[in-house]
Amino acid sequence: MASIIPMVTLSNILLILLLSTCAANAQLSANFYANSCPNLQTIVRNAMTQAVNRETRIGASILRLFFHDCFVNGCDASILLDDTATFTGEKNAAPNRNSARGFEVIDTIKSNVEAACNATVSCADILALAARDGVVLLGGPTWQVPLGRRDARTASQSAANSQIPSPFANLAALISSFSAKGLSARDLTALSGGHTIGLARCTTFRGRIYNDTNIDANFAATRRANCPASGGDNNLAPLEIQTPTRFDNNYYRDLVAQRGLLHSDQELFNGGSQDALVRTYSNNPNTFSSDFAAAMVRMGNISPLTGTNGEIRRNCRVVN
């Protein structure tokens, strides 16, 4: 009898380890709100459809919000918190100030969701779903969004300043910043394809069009017309020039033609480790779409608050 006890104990330990591993991997689930808010995805999609119909750019803006949220202490809706007299959020960090937008759309979705399912769905999950829907509505791929994130009670302006990748970064710095979040160089190159939609401010690409040499001359001249060497910081240009309101693989074709708008874009195709993958994506839209969708799920899994951590915010702009 005594000899059986250690075996039983060992098997119990292995079972506990297995269950705890499964629990860690299954913290988020696509079916998280299946019973508590069954119409959630329809509510989000309807609001995003209206928003994109009003302004196609909003799809890119919401996608960027999600990216900037996830890269600062995980996908916890900290980017949505307003500054107050006693609280400093992330909205005025350098990467977000005068450029992060779409907050009103998230507010609208949140109020619609609250009307259907009071105090149930987190702002973090709403942002994750809205980002996916914006991509789909502009012609991009779809994916199942794992859900069950909770909302942060804190934010970090300093982390937003230091951890969101810079448009001026070189390839090594970009790979390093993604690696710090558990994302691969392939994820970096796939997620950068989000720049197939949206606009950038002159201040983010001025150095590229006046100083970089790995740039198509006609493209640089076109961009300089609306981005002077000084002044006009907030003048806008499309991140991808061929189909800037359609989610496709033309971003990579631009890179191959040395028409990346940001220095960080062109770094992906500049004689380095990502050149072959950029060529692959430029020739194979399906490969890009599947890699982008998979990378979005991985990014959405960065350090979520789950269980009893965080809270379900009633208003996405303020902690409860």
From TrEMBL:
The keyword S-adenosyl-L-methionine appears for this protein = no
Swiss-Prot/TrEMBL cofactor(s): Ca(2+); heme b
Biological process (GO) annotations held by this record are: hydrogen peroxide catabolic process; response to oxidative stress
> What Enzyme Commission number(s) appear in the record?
1.11.1.7
> Main EC class of this protein?
oxidoreductase
Cofactor binding remark: Binds 2 calcium ions per subunit. Binds 1 heme b (iron(II)-protoporphyrin IX) group per subunit.
Binding residues for Ca(2+) 1, per the UniProt record?
A: 69, 72, 74, 76, 78, 90
Q: What family is this protein classified in?
A: Belongs to the peroxidase family. Ascorbate peroxidase subfamily. Belongs to the peroxidase family. Classical plant (class III) peroxidase subfamily.
Name it. Answer: Peroxidase
**Gene source species:** Hibiscus trionum
